[in-house]
C-alpha cells in the first residue's frame, strides 16, 4: 500500500477494472490541512444508512487536531467511528477482500494504512424452514446463505466457549469464506487436522456451493457411490453432530453445511426421532430401513423372479402376473427398465419446471403414461405397481436417492440377465464397496460393520433420553477408527 | 488418511465361520450316516481344527504376528518356498470350493448356465473384494453373517414340519462301509486355518478363547446341519428332485414354495467370502497387501485351473480329492509351522 491516496485509489481501480459497482466517496476531513480521504465500497454490499450515520457523518463533523495521517487513522478508529467492527488493513489485497465482503474501506491521504469498517447490508433470504429437511416437532429454523447468520444460528444453540469457528478462504478467484466449526473438547485432533488439510489443499478457482468441496473432503482410495460427507440445512442437526465430535464446514453463500465424518446409519436418523417417543421413533427407523431395502431391491428381484424363477411368486400372484405379462409386447426386464427410466425423467422434469406446470406433468405422468399404457397393453400393471412402490419408498430416505437410483438400475439389469444369482453378486459388490469406504478414517458402515453394541441404542432403535444423554459416543471412539 | 491396517479379532473370526459354511453347504449328504457318525465326525472336525491351528496360535500369542510374517522374519531366504506352498494351498482350496459351487449351481439352480461363466462372474466379485483388502471383507462379514444366519434359520424352520423322529437311532453308526472319503470331506473345513495363519498379524485384541469359540461355532453348525439333514430332511430329501443337495426346494411355508433361493443366497455369499479370504491369504504370502495385480494373477490361475478341470477329468479328480487337500493343509498349517517353532525359535523382546 502506498502513502498517497491517489495512488492507492488508482491501484484499486486497476484491480476492479473500473467495475460499475466499485464506488469511491471522496471527502476532506476537518483537519488544519484539510486532509483528503476516501470511502471505498461495493454497491449493494453495504448498508447505505449505516454508512451515512455511523461513518460519513462523524467523519465530516469531527474537528481533528492532528495533521499527521497515521495519528489521524488512530483517532478515527478510537474516537470518531461509531460502528462496532473496525479492522486495520496494510495491503491492497486485504482492502479488496474486505470491500468485496461488504466492508466500507476508509483510506486517508498520507498513510499506508486503511480501515475496514463493518457496514454489511446486502439483501439475503431470511431464516426459514429448510424444504429438504422438514420436521414435525423440531425447530423451524434453517440455515441461510450468509455465513455470519449461520454462525449465530449455531452459537445460539451451543452457548459454550468450547465451540470454535475457524475461518479459511478457498477459491483463487471467488475467495469464498469457509468456516470450520467444532467443539474443541469433543473433536479428535486427527480428524480436525485432516479436514483442515484437505480444505487447504483445495485448489478450486471458484467455490459457489458446499457441494464443490465434498469430493476434496472424501478419503482417497475409497471410491464409492455413497458419500462420506454429510449435508444438513438444520442448525439443530448440526449442533447434535458437533456434540458427537464431528466437524461442520460452513460455506458462505450456501445453506447446506457439510458434516464429517459421516456414517451410513446417519442417513436413517432425523431430528424428529429425538422429539418423538422412543417406541415410535424406533418404528420409524425400522420403517426407513425397510423402505430403503424395498426401494433398492424390489424392481431387481421382481425382474429376476418374473424372468427366471416364476415359481417364487405365490400361486395367486403368479397367475395374475403371468397373465398380465403375456399380453405385453416387451420382455419383463426391458419393461421394468423402461418404466423406471420414464419415471426418472418425470421426476427430473417435475423438479426443474416452474411450479404451475408441475400439475400438468403429474397428470400426463399418472394418466397418459401410467393408466393409458396399462390399458393399451404396453406395460403390465404389476410392473407399474412394483416400480411405483419402489419410487415411493426411495423418498423415505431422500438423502440416499442418488445411490438408490444407481443401485436399483444395476439390480434390474443384473437380475434381468442372471436372475436371483445376479442380484446376489451385485449385493456382495455393493456391500464390499460400502464396507471399504471410510470417512476421515472412520469406517462408513460403522455401528453395523464393524458392529458396535453400544451404538445400537441409536441405530435400529432409539433408546430413551436417559440412556442416550449419559453416554454420548464420540465418533472417533467407534471401532476400527484410525483417529483416536 | 491411510486406510486402517488392523481390525478386531471378531472380524477374522466371522470370516472363518462364514468360510466354513460353503463347504458344509456344498457337501452331498445323501448318505444317511447315522447319529453316532454325525457325533464322531463333528468331534473330529473340532479336534482337527484345534490341532491344525495350534502352531499359528502359538506364534501369534508369543510373537504377536502371523506364521507367514514369522517365517519371513526368521528365514528370509526360505520364505519364497513357504509363500509358494501357502499360495498353492490357497489356490487349491479356492479351486475345490469353486468347482463344488459351480457343480451345484449348474446341476440344481440352472442347468443351462455355463459353469465357465458362473465361475468367471464369481471370481470377478472375489477379485473386487480381495482388491479392497481384508478390512473391507472383515466388515462385510458382519452383515453377511447376519444374513446367512437368517437364511439358514428360515431354511431349517421351514422344514421342521417334516421331522422324522422314527429315523433316530442313537446307537446306529450308519452303514459300516462308509467311505473314508466321506469322513475326510467333512474335515476339509480346516482350509480356513490357512487364512488365520496368513492374516493374523493384522488382528488386534486376539484371545485364544476367540478362536476356540469360532471352532466351536463351526463344529456346532456342522453338527446341527448334519443332524437336521438326518432328522428333518433325510428320507424326505431323498424323494425330492434336489436330493443331492438336501436343503433345496424342501421348505413349504404358506403358499410360497421353494426356498432354494435362500440356499443359493447363503451358499453364494459364503463361497465368495471363502474364495476371497483365500486369495487375500495368497496375496499376503507374496508379501503384498491389497495388491489388485497379484489378486488378478491368482484369480486367473484359479480360472485356468477351473477350465482345465472342466476339460480333463484327471485334473478335476486331483482338485476335488479331499484326502490330497487335507494332506497339504496339514503340511502347511501344522508340520511347517511346527518345524519353525522347534528349530527356529526367536527370543521374545
Structural commentary:
The complex is a heterodimer of chains A (484) and B (349). Chain A has helices spanning 5-16, 48-61, 69-80, 92-100, 147-155, 189-200, 211-217, 235-243, 278-307, 315-326, 332-352, 355-375, 381-394, 401-418, 420-436, 465-470, and strands spanning 22-28, 36-42, 86-89, 103-108, 114-118, 163-170, 176-183, 230-232, 247-251, 257-260, 438-439, 442-443. Chain A is of the alpha+beta class and 484 residues long. Chain A has three domains: 5-118, no CATH class; 147-262, no CATH class; 278-436, no CATH class. Chain A is elongated. The mean pLDDT of chain A is 87. With 349 residues, chain B is mainly alpha-helical. The interface between A and B is large, with 39 and 41 residues.
Output the keywords.
heterodimer; A: 484 residues; alpha+beta; 3 domains; five-stranded antiparallel beta sheet; 16 helices; 13% strand; elongated; B: 349 residues; mainly alpha; Amino acid/polyamine transporter I; two-stranded parallel ribbon; two-stranded antiparallel ribbon; 13 helices; 72% helix; globular
Detail the topology: elements first, then pairings:
The complex is a heterodimer of chains A (484) and B (349).
Chain A: H1 5-16, E1 22-28, E2 36-42, H2 48-61, H3 69-80, E3 86-89, H4 92-100, E4 103-108, E5 114-118, H5 147-155, E6 163-170, E7 176-183, H6 189-200, H7 211-217, E8 230-232, H8 235-243, E9 247-251, E10 257-260, H9 278-307, H10 315-326, H11 332-352, H12 355-375, H13 381-394, H14 401-418, H15 420-436, E11 438-439, E12 442-443, H16 465-470
Helix pairs in contact in A: 9-13, 9-14, 11-12, 11-13, 11-14, 14-15
Chain B: E1 7-8, H1 9-26, H2 35-63, H3 67-74, H4 79-109, H5 115-131, H6 133-159, H7 180-186, H8 191-199, E2 203-204, H9 208-238, E3 252-253, E4 256-257, H10 260-285, H11 292-311, H12 313-319, H13 322-343
Parallel strand pairs in B: 1-2
Antiparallel strand pairs in B: 3-4
Helix pairs in contact in B: 1-6, 1-8, 1-9, 1-10, 2-8, 2-9, 2-13, 4-5, 4-8, 4-10, 4-11, 4-13, 5-10, 5-11, 6-10, 8-10, 8-13, 10-11, 11-12
